[in-house]
Specification:
This protein is about 0% helix and about 50% strand. By secondary structure, it is mainly beta. The protein is globular, with a radius of gyration of 13 Å.
C-alpha cells in the first residue's frame, strides 16, 4: 500500500510558476514509477508527466513539454512537478500516481495508487 499526498497548488497569473510536491508513504517508494495527471472540469483525466522508478528517464505531454519538469527524490520519497510559464489552459486538479510497473504508463489504468489532487488555477 502506498499513500500519496499532493501539495503546492494555488492561484497564479499566466506566465508564473508553481512547484507541486507529492509525498509518498508506505511500501518502497523507489520501486515505483510516478506520474502526474490533471483533470479540468468536464474533461477526462490526462497524462502530464512521468518518471521511471530510478528517476533516470522522463516523459511529458506535448502540451507541457519545455515548461514542466518532473523529478523524483527517492531519499525523501517525494516526486515534484515544477511548472513554469503557466497558461490558463493549465488550470486543473493535478494528481500524482504510483505505478508498480516501475515505468511511466500514459494512461490512468497503469497506476496502482492515486493522491487526492491539488487545484491549480492560472488566471489570464
Amino acid at each position: 500500500q502506498v499513500q500519496l499526498v499532493e501539495s503546492g497548488g494555488g492561484l497564479v497569473q499566466a506566465g508564473g510558476s508553481l512547484r507541486l510536491s507529492c509525498a509518498a508513504s508506505g511500501r518502497a517508494f523507489s520501486n515505483y514509477g510516478m506520474g502526474w495527471f490533471r483533470q479540468a472540469p468536464g474533461k477526462e483525466r490526462e497524462f502530464v508527466a512521468g518518471i521511471i522508478r530510478t528517476g533516470l528517464s522522463t516523459r511529458y505531454a506535448n502540451s507541457v513539454k519545455g515548461r514542466f519538469t518532473i523529478s523524483k527524490d527517492n531519499a525523501k520519497t517525494t516526486v515534484y512537478l515544477q511548472m513554469n510559464s503557466l497558461k490558463p489552459e493549465d488550470t486543473a486538479v493535478y494528481y500524482c500516481a504510483a505505478s508498480s510497473v516501475g515505468g511511466y504508463p500514459l494512461t490512468t489504468g497503469g497506476y496502482d495508487y492515486w493522491g487526492r489532487g491539488t487545484q491549480v488555477t492560472v488566471s489570464s
